[in-house]
């Protein structure tokens, strides 16, 4: 039986998903989509030759079994709550927006729904999840991004921090993953995902650097646990949206394929 997929947001990530689903992925069907600018989205779908009804997120439960959230974090509730109330699944990319909303996790538990957070732009969540079955002593993440990828972040604007005209790396944040996700909601959902896989957003620490020498988004994770000590490093090529790595959409596709795959590799 095919899983009907709804896409919330037809930006850099949503468009990749729509194309791939329309081309055909075994066991998956593109059921519908939602977009902030419906006229623009409809024009793009027609230009791509993709047949897909555009609806409001509240209509997803009638049409889909799983919704993929790749929209601004501010609309997370509109996407998740109706699906979870119907006992269905939501794949969330705005993991940072989940941290202050434990009620959504409680709703999923109560109604038999599920929230799926894909690996996204980060590697090693399998190892962190495995280590969390034992005791993790510390998790630290260091993110370095081109300044343009951080521009407009609430933490920068609130604290009067400029990333313009930099000639050397600048530390713009140091603190917990919870505060980092709140201060950089479009930039470090990876930190929220890392914290959810491991020891939580208040014990996971992070640094964010604006680095003018970089053309890629770089993340380093350092984990110390009773089962292993490991350091992971990844350099992500930005998508057409400089705040998002190109690998994020591919991670979602990989997670979708696993839903009905006869062979599933990874924890």
Secondary structure layout plus pairing:
Blueprint: E1 3-8, H1 12-23, E2 28-34, H2 38-48, H3 60-63, E3 66-69, H4 76-85, E4 89-92, H5 102-111, E5 114-116, H6 125-132, E6 136-145, H7 154-158, E7 170-176, H8 177-183, H9 189-197, E8 204-210, E9 217-225, E10 229-236, H10 246-259
Parallel strand pairs: 1-2, 1-3, 3-4, 4-5, 6-8
Antiparallel strand pairs: 6-9, 7-8, 9-10
Number of strands: 10
CATH architecture of the largest domain: 3-Layer(aba) Sandwich
Structural class: alpha/beta
Fraction of helical residues: 25-40%
Number of domains: 2
Query: What is the CATH level 1 assignment of the largest domain?
Result: Alpha Beta
Number of helices: 10
User: Residue ranges: pLDDT <50 for 5 or more in a row?
Assistant: none
Q: Which sequence of strands runs across the widest sheet?
A: 2-1-3-4-5
> How far apart are the termini?
24 Å
Shape: globular
CATH superfamily annotation of the largest domain:
NAD(P)-binding Rossmann-like Domain
Largest beta sheet, briefly? 5 strands, parallel
Calculate Rg over CA atoms: 18 Å
């Amino acid at each position: 039986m095919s899983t009907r997929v709804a896409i919330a947001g037809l930006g850099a990530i949503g468009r990749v998903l729509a194309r791939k689903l329309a081309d055909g992925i075994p066991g998956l069907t593109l059921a519908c989509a939602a977009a902030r600018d419906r006229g623009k989205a409809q024009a793009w779908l027609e230009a791509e030759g993709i047949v897909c009804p555009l609806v409001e997120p509240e209509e997803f439960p009638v049409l889909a079994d799983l919704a993929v959230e790749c929209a601004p974090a501010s609309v997370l509730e509109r996407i998740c709550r109706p699906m979870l109330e119907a006992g269905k699944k939501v794949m969330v990319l705005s993991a940072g927006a989940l941290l202050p909303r434990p009620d959504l996790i409680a709703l999923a538990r109560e109604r038999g729904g599920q929230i799926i957070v894909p690996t996204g732009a980060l590697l090693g969540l399998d190892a962190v999840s495995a280590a969390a079955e034992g005791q993790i002593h510390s998790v630290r993440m260091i993110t370095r991004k081109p300044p343009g990828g951080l521009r407009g972040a609430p933490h920068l604007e609130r604290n009067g921090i400029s990333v313009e005209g930099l000639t050397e790396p600048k530390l713009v944040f140091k603190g917990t993953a919870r505060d980092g996700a709140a201060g950089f909601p479009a930039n470090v959902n990876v930190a929220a995902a890392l914290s959810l896989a491991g020891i939580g957003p208040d014990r996971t620490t992070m640094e964010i650097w604006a680095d003018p020498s970089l053309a890629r988004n770089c993340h380093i994770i350092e984990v110390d646990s009773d089962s292993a000590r490991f350091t992971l490093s990844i350099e992500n090529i930005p998508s057409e949206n400089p705040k998002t790595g190109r690998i994020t959409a591919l991670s979602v596709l990989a997670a979708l394929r696993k839903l009905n795959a006869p062979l599933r590799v990874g924890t």
